[in-house]
User: Fold these one by one.
Assistant:
Number 1:
Amino acid sequence: MPVPSSLRSDIVEVNPWLRIADDPFTGEPVVHVRALRPDVALVQGSAVDARGNIHIDGDPAIDALVAKAARRVVVSVPVEEDRDPARAALSRVWVDEVVLDPQGPWPTGSGAHMVADVRAVGRWIKAGGEDLSVLAEVPS
């Protein structure tokens, strides 16, 4: 993937993931970055339809790109709903496993519709950030 920055930087000499090559469109030198291939992509969706397509309310950010690059894709969704497959953010062909979890990403958030429970996260941080039992007060 061509990157327009770092051309005059020493970073190319010390980072094996970077190399200078000609831009295929302009012929000008440009830094190329080797593509990442994650072992697993963990994606938080808003819903899964009956066909297994993943729907994300709002901006999916880079979730679909990461899912398509990963070797395996696990998606957590709070609900299975009847939705238009044409409007899915991620087709079922990219998904290896779907986990139905009514609590979603609690206590953290995901997108505009799944807001973080800042009180629960605060309790966890105040407890030192290691003891997950402080999160036992799961909302209903």
Number 2:
Amino acid sequence: MLKQLKYFQSVVRFGSVSAAAEENFISQSAISQQVQSLERELGFALLVRKNRSFSLTPAGEYFYRKSLLPTADCDRMCAKAAKIAKREAEQEFSRIVLGFPSEFLYVENLEVARLLVAGGRGFLPLEGGERQAAEPLARVPLVRNGEPILRTYCAFWKKENVNPYVPEFARLLKGQFDT
């Protein structure tokens, strides 16, 4: 029913079955059938069809206005759930593959990380480069048992995948870390 509802909303928003079909990447007949199926499921008409145009019935107008909020909520809910799933996958990768403990806080971008640091809710380990005067960040040295933590970066590729560009890429990459 959710997909049918979104098709109905598209038809009303665009004022055209053909434009709504194009927007949703389906045929005009398919979107018309989906709207008709929605009407059958609801038990009342949403649209009055006249030749190649349509108008909303009073029930259709009410239904359209009231349907916008729940579908928007559903879209937000799905997007949030996808972000949570992605974050969980990133945390699992970091924990299992990279060996980072799970108490790390993962954020979507540097701006969010800076806000958390500025609000005293975390630390942001930064490597290299000079600190900008306007940055509200404090650099935190990474140490274990009084010794700085050094990171080893490795690049691997299959022996059979070597082409003339791989050794050059490796040389350039190594140069970035040998400063």
Number 3:
Amino acid sequence: MFLAMCLFGLIGILASGVSLPSSVIVLFRGLIGSLFILLVILSTGKWISSEDVRSNLKPLVLSGIFLGLNWLALFEAYKQTTISLATLSNYMAPVFVMIVSTILTQGEIHCDQVSMRYRIHPRVGDGFRRHTGRDDRG
């Protein structure tokens, strides 16, 4: 567990120091992860049933696509800005999902959800303005 936390903590430093494009880093990260999962399956002998995969194919494919896009955006952010701003932007994804999902489903946003959004969002913008010296508020 400790090793996993150390490796995860080093992702930003390693990604910003590698001269490969973000898409190549994401491709190799996916391949390494797939090989690791295959090794775990082979070592434990617990196979995933093809019926389970077929019944969940659409959510699995969509999840894979969105995870890949998230990694692509994260590694590109590591190259374009500081590691702290890239990580903070990555952790803002659930807030954006909450806002977009309420628009698409025409649901309601409750007061506690709105107050949390406005507590987090201005700080991200302030950090961006301090880092780049520009004000991109429009």
Number 4:
Amino acid sequence: MGALLVCIATAPVLAQAVEQQYGKVRYAAGRKVFQTGVFEPRLLAEIPNGATAPFLVMSGMGCDECDINVSIYIHSPAQGPMAEGERAERYAYPGQYRHYMTDELLELVRMFTGQCTEEGKPGVLWMHRIKLDSGGWRSVAFAVQIADGKLVERIDPAYEAVLRATRQRVAGGLCREIRGRQFKTEP
């Protein structure tokens, strides 16, 4: 009988521990709230989406108490609920990524939001430098923009030209860089 009482007494505690508590972000100058599908979300930028809700550029984690890095998520409340946790599409958070065992630098990521692309459309731009097995580096620009209410991704191999143009847009106040962090690669 004593064991049964312990089980009954701890059942509500176990149920609370299993329940996922995803965070919320405020947008539209704090007037609106969106329930995300990620842990510890932080709004970094809003991308206009015509007459509907903007696309929210957020940082967050797809799981709680795991080895996953902080990532970037882009979602519009107009699309309905966000996919939860690790099922949500995620992008690299800016910063330096080092191998989790050897500490070798493997990737450098810069990220910009605003009117950062050549076309001047609002979006998100990543500048990736990835270490190759040969020891050299591959540089590539990756952009996400909005077209007809949907995210459109594109890769631009002209890294140096894109970086020069982006620096000019930052200097002109058209886009801004998101400060990077130090990361270990995910095991």
